[in-house]
């Protein structure tokens, strides 16, 4: 009865196609999820991400392992869904993708121990504007499944940067260069870094550099989608 009333006022619709969700679907309908270009396995996702790093970021050796659920294509439904997750106030989408990512990682965890999960931080003013950091929601969801601590106190974004979209590789690098700083003296041994989408890897590489210079030895990366 109560859920019927809630349904009436807050209809559960798919963030991809706008269709009504059935009772056992959450945030995104089964047809939309199936339409996303999913990596066949963890190894091929790792290979694709490492290749992007080798091509665009000279410090690719810094990431020992990487996971991604999907390949991101312009104008597919995944783009709509991720846009809604970042700007549309739908933090629950982050929980959904965090769970899917954690399942992928759980089946494939490498020898190296992950001490904690670190979301790519937003500048504090941008977090106020958007009200939440989508990477933090992802990280928390993953932390719950993988039973790992999420550290949001480790690294901050000290520069307020414009969006990366629409910039060239050089501009992307310049935009995030020295944008991050490690501010805690509790330095973990191994970090699983979490970002929503990776394009050239410039943002991830900038965070990795700051973690490295603070003494983090092992860095892994997880992202919902690889856009390349
Ligand atoms: Zn749908």
Give a description of the structure:
The chain is α/β, with parallel strands linked by helices. It has two domains: 1-35, no CATH class; 37-226, Rossmann fold, CATH 3.40.50. 42% of the residues lie in helices and 17% in strands. The chain has helices at 2-9, 30-35, 42-56, 77-87, 92-106, 124-130, 134-146, 169-176, 202-214, and strands at 37-38, 65-71, 116-119, 149-150, 155-157, 180-182, 190-198, 218-226. The strands form two sheets. It has a six-stranded mixed β-sheet with strand order 1-2-8-7-3-4, with helices on both faces. A two-stranded antiparallel ribbon has the order 5-6. α9 links the parallel β7 (190-198) and β8 (218-226). α5 packs across α7. The chain is globular. The mean pLDDT is 89. The structure holds zinc ion. Residues 14, 16-17, 19, 28-29, 31-32 line the site of zinc ion.
Beta-strand content estimate: 15-25%
Low-confidence stretches: none
Q: Supply the number of helical segments.
A: 9
| Total domain modules | 2
- The helix-and-strand class reads alpha/beta
Rounded to the nearest angstrom, the radius of gyration is: 17 Å
Bound molecules: zinc ion
Query: How much helical structure, as a percent, in the residues?
Result: 40-55%
Looking across the biggest beta sheet, what order are the strands in? Answer: 1-2-8-7-3-4
Task: Report the sheet with the most strands, covering strand number, pairing sense and barrel closure.
Answer: 6 strands, mixed
Distance between the termini: 47 Å
């Amino acid at each position: 009865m109560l859920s019927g009333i809630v349904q009436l006022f807050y209809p559960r619709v798919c963030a991809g196609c706008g269709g009504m969700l059935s009772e056992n679907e959450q945030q995104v309908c089964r047809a939309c999820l199936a339409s996303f270009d999913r990596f066949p396995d963890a190894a091929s996702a790792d290979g694709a991400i490492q290749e992007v790093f080798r091509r665009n970021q000279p410090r690719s050796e810094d990431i020992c392992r990487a996971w991604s659920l999907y390949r991101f294509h312009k104008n597919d439904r995944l783009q709509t869904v991720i846009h809604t997750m970042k700007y549309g106030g739908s933090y629950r989408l982050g929980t959904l993708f965090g769970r899917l990512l954690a399942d992928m990682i759980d089946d494939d965890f490498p020898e190296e121990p992950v001490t904690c999960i670190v979301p790519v931080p937003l500048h504090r003013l941008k977090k106020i504007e958007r009200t939440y950091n989508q990477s933090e929601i992802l990280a928390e969801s993953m932390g719950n499944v993988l039973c790992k601590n999420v550290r949001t106190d480790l690294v901050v974004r000290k520069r307020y940067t414009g969006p990366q979209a629409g910039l060239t590789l050089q501009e992307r690098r310049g935009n995030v260069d020295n944008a991050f700083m490690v501010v805690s003296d509790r330095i973990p041994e191994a970090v699983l870094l979490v970002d929503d989408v990776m394009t050239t890897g410039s943002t991830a590489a900038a965070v990795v550099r700051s973690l490295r210079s603070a003494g983090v030895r092992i860095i892994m990366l997880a992202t919902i989608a690889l856009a390349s």
